[in-house]
Amino acid sequence: MRITQGNTQAGIAAIEFILVLPVLLILMVSLSEIGSIFIKYNTLNKLTQSGCRYAVIHIYGTATTNQIADINKIKNVILYGNDLGSGAIKLDSLTADNIMIEHVDHFVTVTVSYDYIPFIERIPFFDIPLTLTISATSMMRTG
């Protein structure tokens, strides 16, 4: 039996594909993880800005301008997107303990830290910790 040139080329192409496939998969997964990190970081920044803005604007019934809104309501705005604390949490595994609010000398600073867990860490029997802490800070002047 004679081997034709077409069959040999098809076999070599299959071997090349098998050798290159893991590299392509690692590249695709890493790019999707980087995209996911950017989305979470952008969401965290927006939530921090919303909480800081709420702290400065919603000061009804105060005698002076150097006041901020209720701390619990600020945390609800950051966690849920509203001051009532209803609905779903905007970022999974984000808690009120991750939120720090400071009010010093006519400035309010809101800092939120978030533990990002990559997709690969959720795979069973993968024991390498890859959790990444992301933090965002916003500052506004009161009054």
Textual characterization of the structure:
The chain is α+β, with helices and mostly antiparallel strands and 143 residues long. A hairpin with a 2-residue loop joins β1 and β2 (107-116). It is built from 2 helices and 3 strands. 44% of the residues lie in helices and 18% in strands. The termini are far apart. α1 (5-57) packs antiparallel against α2 (71-80). Strands 1-2-3 form a 3-stranded antiparallel sheet, covered by helices on one side. This is TadE-like domain-containing protein. It comes from Aliivibrio wodanis. The chain crosses the membrane at residues 12-31.
Quick overview:
The protein has 143 residues and is α+β, with helices and mostly antiparallel strands. Helices cover 44% and strands 18% of the residues.
SSE run: HHEEE
- The oligomerization state is single chain
**Total count of domains:** 1
Treating each run of at least 4 consecutive H or I residues as one helix, how many helices?
Answer: 2
Show unreliable segments: none
* Most strands sheet: 3 strands, antiparallel
Molecular shape: elongated
Beta-strand percentage range: 15-25%
Q: For the largest beta sheet, what order do the strands appear in spatially?
A: 1-2-3
- The whole-number mean of residue pLDDT values reads 89
Distance between the first and last residues' Cα = 91 Å
**Using DSSP, what is the number of strands?**
3
User: What fraction, in percent, of the residue positions are helical?
Assistant: 40-55%
